[in-house]
Structure to design on (344 residues):
């Protein structure tokens, strides 16, 4: 078999896997939407849920229950897509499969800034939440990058991961130190701190959704540059890619997506780690396919985590952030073990 034939077969194989990945992600998103609308304290069959969404004049108890779940479903899709794409962008920028908004401290920075605003500034409006979350996420990302750049070799993947993990732990301690003495603030925002989509509000989503939309477009446009940078900086420059501005653009898009998602639903971790890593096994390192697939996969995974959290207990809900952590922690262990073995 000639080399050309082998290359054609590999290309066809990658195209098939990419098609399968997108089909699977689309099916998961559809399944998650149906489950989110139909399942809960009062279960509704899918056809009834569909009729309730399409015909607002239906006033049955089942229809009312379904329509009350619509904001929560939309919020899950919005935040999950933002976190999935943010994780994929950060992994592409740092060239590190361990990169994730939670592990790199970005989620923690956004959460700390919002908690400071709640406890000391009395913030209430969506714009205030968004502004503080973006500032906190950006400062945390910059701090982790600076710390990870210290020493020989500059900002290596391992150093960034270690700096991010240490920063995340420190930020979480600061959040607890601020909240614990203030029972009024702790009571109001306990669920937000855990991370969940149960408190969906249209006014907040309408303010923050355009910001997420712009960051999504910018992130997707950076895909060709990320593909070039994956070959190495010298190779990327040889292909005519201005590495510095594009790396900054993709990083800013990831930070904005993470900060906006945290402002809406709290610091939900592991979505940005699990989704890109799993999809990379199917579509490869091609960011033109990986980024939009991560967008879909993140939306589906967070929404399914929320549904599981509703059903896992009879008397109370388990927040989506906790369910996502149960899913993501084993994946993190597998990635760390594989990276260590490769390093050896």
């Amino acid at each position: 078999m000639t080399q050309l034939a082998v290359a054609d077969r590999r290309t066809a194989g990658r195209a098939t896997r990419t098609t399968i990945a997108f089909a699977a992600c689309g099916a998961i998103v559809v399944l998650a939407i149906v489950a989110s609308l139909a399942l809960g304290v009062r279960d509704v069959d899918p056809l009834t849920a569909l009729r309730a969404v399409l015909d607002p004049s239906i006033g049955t108890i089942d229809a009312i229950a379904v329509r009350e779940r619509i904001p929560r479903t939309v919020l899950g899709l919005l935040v999950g897509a933002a976190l999935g794409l943010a994780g994929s962008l950060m992994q592409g920028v740092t060239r590190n499969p361990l990169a994730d908004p939670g592990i790199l401290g970005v989620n923690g920075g956004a959460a700390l800034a919002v908690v400071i605003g709640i406890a000391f500034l009395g913030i209430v409006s969506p714009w205030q939440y968004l502004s503080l979350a973006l500032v906190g996420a950006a400062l945390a990302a910059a701090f982790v990058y600076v710390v990870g750049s210290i020493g020989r070799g500059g900002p290596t993947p391992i150093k960034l991961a270690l700096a991010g993990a240490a920063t995340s732990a420190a930020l979480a301690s600061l959040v607890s130190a601020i909240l614990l003495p203030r029972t009024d603030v702790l009571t109001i925002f306990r669920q937000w701190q855990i991370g969940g989509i149960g408190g969906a509000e249209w006014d907040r989503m309408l303010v923050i959704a355009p910001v997420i939309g712009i960051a999504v477009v910018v992130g997707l446009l950076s895909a060709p540059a990320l593909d070039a940078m994956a070959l190495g900086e010298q190779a990327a420059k040889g292909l005519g890619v201005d590495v510095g501005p594009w790396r900054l653009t993709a990083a800013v898009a990831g930070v904005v997506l993470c900060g906006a998602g945290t402002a809406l639903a709290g610091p939900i971790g592991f979505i940005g780690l699990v989704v890109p890593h799993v999809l990379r096994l199917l579509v490869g390192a091609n960011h033109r396919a990986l980024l939009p697939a991560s967008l879909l996969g993140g939306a589906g995974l967070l929404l399914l985590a929320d549904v599981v959290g509703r059903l896992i207990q009879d008397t109370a809900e388990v927040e989506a952030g906790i369910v996502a952590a149960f899913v993501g922690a084993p994946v993190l262990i597998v990635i760390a073990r594989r990276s260590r073995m490769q390093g050896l």
Notes: DSSP finds 15 helices and no strands in the chain.
